[in-house]
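Blinded run. Sample ID left blank on purpose so nobody reads anything into the name before looking at the predicted structure. Input follows.
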Amino acid sequence: MRNQYFFAALVISLLGGGLTASAEIGGGSSETSATQAYRDQDRFFRRVLIEGSVANAGYEGGDSSRYTKPNGYTAGMLVDLLGNRALVVETGAMYRQFGTTFNNGVENHKYTADYLSIPLSLKYYFSGQESTSFYLKAGVMGSRLLSNTNLYPTSTVQIGTRAWETALLGGVGGKFQISPSTDVLVEADYTRALDSAFSGSNTYRSDLSGALGLAINL
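Blinded prediction complete.
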């Protein structure tokens, strides 16, 4: 429960920091591209991002060596909000599924888990958000467990995850303009759970993923 409060506090902090920083960045500068003049620079929604990714859903700490063959994928919709010129706030909703194989010392058993995740991060476009640009982002992500399949349920060996998970996230990517209203995204992300895999465990999920996406500029 405390990590849910931690997630909420970080959300408020990120939004506050994003508003302050964007006001400072936008105060004395403007982009000169044709697309800059085409759009309202005070608009709340900047673009819609439709993304899908594949992940290496690894584990670290504790008995992480028992977890092998990690895999996963993510699909969902994100939005760039607020900001001005180079800095925006990114959030949205993602469906995420991860699977792994757990060895109980005798044999292997498969496990999968499905989440609804809400990421929130600050994103910085090095060449400005209205054109082709590389970017960095960092923030937090809260995830609610939707369902899980544990093919080895026992009272002594647990395989799984919590109903709620808070994670830190970071990413690097490129937004490549193909028209004034459309961009293609290529991105690499890293997430590190702050909640252990299950109660009483010190095993944490630590994921690397590669994503492709389509951005629709508003």
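Unblinding after everyone has recorded impressions. The mean pLDDT is 81.
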